[in-house]
Structures are given as structure tokens and as C-alpha cells.
């Protein structure tokens, strides 16, 4: 298995390390996701492969190859030089409203395609949104993705259910926080709302450090759930385990200060308790925000991240760098023996 030469560590996905590699035959730079514990992650790995095979969009990272070797499994993906967090926090790149609007539109276009293909991502967050050398945003890391099951429960008499242990806490929809296993693609739309807000605020909208704190923050800002705002809340397994002090919702324009009112309106239609009333991705794309000045930037005029963008923004503390170098050297030797 000498097809690839490992160059450097890029990062870490939900279930594996990601490295940059050179395809020897073509000289092409690729990204390789390395999963070492197949017994624990085989189901998620198969779902990720099937999802990526099914998705053909400029706004979704492409799967180029996959293979098994020496008790490990490897996904070969297109190499993408940067990510949304790097673009947002690079002091040398000042993103204007028009460019941020284009990132939002690219994200929603990717989600539209994903949902039209009956796939839920279930872990949308800035860290899983990559920016290629042409400035295009691409959705990545489908480790937790899931095919949306056909709704035949009324005929069979059985409820369709999924695992509730999905999505990163700060982007997790309320129904997931309260333990629901009956949900649909609307959980992705809650995450999109949080991401759109974070693109403006440069910090997570609901930044809880535990599940209880996350719930408390969401309830503080959205108000205590009522029959009007969340009719089916009592169906959530963990909802009645908690008692809430009554609080009124914080107005969305106070939650999101100094932001375009049309964007505030869009985000407000995504971060709602009742999943049935959240905008779908296609509906979100048709909101006035995208048709008002400043108009979205043309994609070919979007900022182009430099090739070494990730390395440029690495922490400067010597102890952090030393630790990362040790981890990478260990990974390099493992992969060098197997590829």
C-alpha cells in the first residue's frame, strides 16, 4: 500500500485523525482520514462512506477513495486548505457582510442537497465547514450522518427512532438536549441558525460547558417553553425531569445586537423550540436577507485562504506545539508502516 506519502497532520475528526498526503501516482495532495478502531466505529464509518458517495455537490467535501489495511480503515478525501473558524479568526482577513452572506448561502445550498438526498448530517458546526483554495465552503465530517428513514410508522405501528447522542453540544437542538430519539433534518437547521449567528458574533451563540448549562442558557434566551412555543415538549424523555423558573424570551435583536435585521429575522426562524416550525434549508435560502443590499459576493471573488492557513493560526505556546509534534510523530510512524 505505497500509494500515498503522509505529509503532515491536519486535524482530528469525530472518529479519526486526518492527515495531508501525497498521492504518488498523480502528485495530487489529498486528505486521509484514518480510523483505527473498526469494531467501535464500523457502523458510523459505513454511514459516512455511503453519505459521501450519495452526495454530489460543490458544497460537500468529495470522497476520492477508501480502503482497509492492517486493522485500520482510510478515507481519501479532497484536500481543503482551510476552515470557516480559521477564516473568521484570521486578523489578516476581514470578511464583510457580503462575503459572510455568501458563506451562509453556500452552507444552505449544501444542506439543501444533503436533505434532498435524505441525509441528516447531525453534527453541523463551524469546525466541520471547510474553505477550499477557491474560497468555496464545503460541508465535511459525515461521521454522525444518517439516512432519513421513510415515515411508515403509522402503518407499522412502530415509532421510527434514532440515537439521541448526536451533534456537538453548543449546536445541539433542544429536542436532542432533552433526550429525544424521534427527530428529523430540522436538527440540522437549528445548528445552521447557531452557525449563522457565530459567523457574526465570532463566538458560539449558546456556549454551555455541560448539558445542564446548555439547557439553562437556551431556556434563558428563548424563554420557558410553553404550549405555544413547543407544543410537543412533554414527549421529550428528559423534559419533565427538570423544573424551570419562568423567564420571558430575550428579543432576538437583543440576543444578536448590531446585526442586520433581516439576518436576525432569519436566525430567529431557525432557533425555535418547535422543530415543525423551523425553516427548511430551501425556505431559508428564499428569505429577504439574501436579496437585500449588500447582495451576496460572487463566489469567484470570495477570499482565498493561503495554502498554509491552518499552520499560520496554530497556537504559539511552545508546550502546545511540542505536544502536537509528539502526537503527529507518533501518528506518522503508525501510518508510515501501514500505507
UniProtKB/TrEMBL annotation:
The keyword Transmembrane does not apply. Its EC number is 2.7.11.22. One of its GO terms (molecular function) is cyclin-dependent protein serine/threonine kinase activity. It is an enzyme of class 2 (transferase). Residues 4-290 form the Protein kinase domain. ATP binds at residue 33. The keyword Nucleotide-binding applies. Coiled coil: none annotated. GO terms for cellular component: nucleus. Signal peptide: none annotated. It catalyses: L-seryl-[protein] + ATP = O-phospho-L-seryl-[protein] + ADP + H(+); L-threonyl-[protein] + ATP = O-phospho-L-threonyl-[protein] + ADP + H(+). Keywords: ATP-binding, Kinase, Nucleotide-binding, Serine/threonine-protein kinase, Transferase. Belongs to the protein kinase superfamily. CMGC Ser/Thr protein kinase family. CDC2/CDKX subfamily. This is Cyclin-dependent kinase 20. The lineage of its organism: Eukaryota, Metazoa, Ecdysozoa, Arthropoda, Hexapoda.
